[in-house]
Here is the input.
Amino acid sequence: MKFQKICVIGLGYIGLPTASTFAAHGINVLGVDISQRIIDTLNKGEIHIHEPGLHEEVKKAIQSGNFKAATKPEEADAFIIAVPTPFQENKFGEYNGMAYKLADMRAVISAAESIVPFLRKGNLVVLESTSPPRTTVDLVTPILARSGLEAGRDFHLAYSPERVLPGQIMRELIENARVIGGVTPESAQVGRDLYSIFVKGQIVQTDATTAEMVKLMENTYRDVNIAIANEFSRLANKFGVDVWEAISIANLHPRVKILNPGPGVGGHCISVDPWFFVEAAPALTPLIYHARQVNDAQPHFVVETVKRALGSLEGKKIAALGLAYKPDVDDLRESPANEVVHLLQHEGALVKAWEPFKPDANLPGIHMSATFEDAIKDADALLLLVNHTEFAKLNPKEIAQKTKARILIDTVKGWNYEAWEKAGFTLLRLGVGK
Ligand code: SAJ
Here is the structure.
């Protein structure tokens, strides 16, 4: 099937790169978002998020006339839904005394509803948002049926998850393998026709529910593996071992690849998606549930480590370096660093936070320093929470001039012991019981 015009609903971290990449490949793209502010920003050729290479792509797409943004969809050959599926803030499910988080599917529901008036015979609709198993079949299909058209007979419907890594989205969108799950084999084939416009990686066709499950399995696999690394860090601490050394030696085994411990698991994917499995089948998911618990509790282990370095935290001044959920991104969503700062403050610490990718972030209850120098100047200790490249590159001798702190706590193995100790600092690393 040929596509002249497509409509991408949701212009966030996935929708916007997808829309601008289609536009760069000559497709007429209408990007849709509920936020008028985002629409105005994009139509000026500006962007509202940080992702390397994205701004240039959007600017070119707008200038070429291939891309415009609006708050309402229009008729098109294909509709792509790329809206967020967070979890509900104040509502939990319960199974055998275990509370679990619930998906908030409202954005998917209203995106599907917004397509109904514009849906025509022969169209393709693709859901990209990470969703609980069976969402395409059980939630989206009945909504689209309100158009009077039937999925798989009158129009094509598929689920195709994004699998791109924030920070490398523009490249991975094109190069990564892509799975397309159709409600019928023909829907999957038409989905393939669409994405083969720019995807260079392998495209695999399957059914919609398999594709949904694949996406959740990938992120759950990573979550469970980070959980074991985090649990190892606690064990190493207890047994007087350096977890980083132990992991690097264990990883010499040809079939072992332990991930890195850290302050916890953040972002809007890995810390969220495993809950979709738990919600869908709590009786079948004890391992997934407990891995989530381990990762969510890791900020407490960071606080214990800080206490080991500083004793009581009452009145102690701490510079928290990095609030993003991972290195070299500006995304602060579900960031464990944020949680660490709150826990430290709860123990009486006076925390100044510095996030180079979003110095002016407005986070309730967190004091953001306007400059790095201000954050570290009067601190008793510097706490490294995110391994941003610029933190790894800091010059210990220069920092020794800029701060009165002589204690460093490194939760991400971003700093080299020798260099910092030579400059007069004492460095304590998460998961090092030596
Ligand atoms: N983390 C660790 N230890 C590690 C690796 C990561 O603590 O060894 C932490 C990070 O610091 C971060 C969190 O885990 O807080 C998640 O980071 P990430 O880099 O593992 O993943 P995301 O959330 O940025 O992107 C993931 C990717 N999924 C997989 O690698 C299986 C990406 O490919 C997906 O497209 C994305 O989720 C998504 O959108 O679902």
